[in-house]
Amino acid sequence: MTERVIDASVAVKWVMKGESHRAQARKLLRESLSTGVRLISPPLFENETESVIQEQVYFRRVSVADADRALRALEHVGVEIIYDPLLKDHARKIARKCNQQRVYDATYAALAEIRGCEFWTADKYFYDAAKTVLPFMRNLPDYKYGKENKNPISP
Fold this sequence. Notes:
Helix 1 crosses helix 2, helix 1 packs across helix 3 and helix 1 packs across helix 4. The two termini are 28 Å apart. The chain is globular, with a radius of gyration of 15 Å. The chain has seven helices and five strands. The relative contact order is 0.23.
């Protein structure tokens, strides 16, 4: 496998202290980078990660300086944004098949299905709704630690 779709729920754990399953997320990241697996996401990834981190600032769970550090660290990882003309239609079909109110999560799944790769999420609600119909989905809490490598990102 040369690619993995990563959603915002996993990526934020790489850079934000205090997140549940953070150690697993960071080990998944290290394992991906050390084995040459390309981390990819749909265009909504950028706004979604920014929004989650901004929400932490808004509720005063982190300082602006910590949020900015986290955003720089996330940019350093280099998740590649993939634009695909089939993405919207495919995401809509997946959302309907999985009985989802919105298409956000299904957009990540659609990209993984189109690219023929794994999709990693920490969103238990979506995972539970879709795991039986989308066999390429992976749940972050189920990640089994890979090789130990030097940490590629700071926070």
